[in-house]
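Section 3.1 - Work completed
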Amino acid sequence: MESEHQILFASLSKSQSINNILEIGTYNGYNAAYLSYLFPNSNILTLELPVDDEAYLSTYRIQNDPYKIFFKKKRDELFNSYKNIQILEVNSFKLIFESNKKFDLIFIDGSHIYPYVAFDLANSLRLLQPNGFIILDDIIFTEENKAYASNHMLQKLEKDKILNYDLIYKNIDKSHSFLKSYIAVIKNEITS
């Protein structure tokens, strides 16, 4: 895992009071473990689709049961060594509609296509604490790419004066990125 969001998270850990973190999109769990290392006193909730969900299988290209079971087992073993990480295997649509818990930091790295990214971003805005941050991964400017939806959503929400955001390069080292992508940083400027 080599991305500029690691530097961003490290910076936030030194300058912000972050008590509750939501991660949408767990994958192998390394990012949640990194967040646990940086924010050892925070509660981290990470969401991932159930391993039998069709979207999970196609997203991670996990087709055979032995590898699917091995992949989940390795992730769960990793999380057993971190006491402040809770994983929920649930579609983020379902949990977010049921939750009223507020978060200081939300990292969106689930599906980057419509309608998923639209729901995740809208619900994250609702669940964000005053002065909290949303970090949205994989912002792409190429309209032919399905992940362009994140960029389109941000532009639309900014035009409608719902949010402001800044972009930073995802990978400064070009050897790690075949496609130029960015990370969006959204701060909730509301103070109460």
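Second construct:
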Amino acid sequence: MVPFVFAIVETGEELTAYWAVDAKPKRTQAIRRLENIEANPVVEFVVDGYEEDWAELWWVRVSGRGRVVASDDERAIAIEALREKYPQYRTRPFTGPVVAIDVDRVTGWSGDASG
């Protein structure tokens, strides 16, 4: 399990999740996750919400295909979405790769039996 921050961009009926190799200190921007996506682009990630009241628990699983963004236009869209969601990114340059996850399926669960 590797935690990461992401932003979702919806275009028509298509969803794409974006994340970036940011400028936080690390040995290299050629991180293992990029090698893993290149070797096998099938990816999943889970977002969950925890509350002391278990009726409020929930999770969402997103399945799709990962790829490093090659287009300057798509990279700009991804960076804008990340900056909009995370104020910390508004003043930091993006010099590393940006990854897109083209969403194929979204599943989820909620502890609230009514919804």
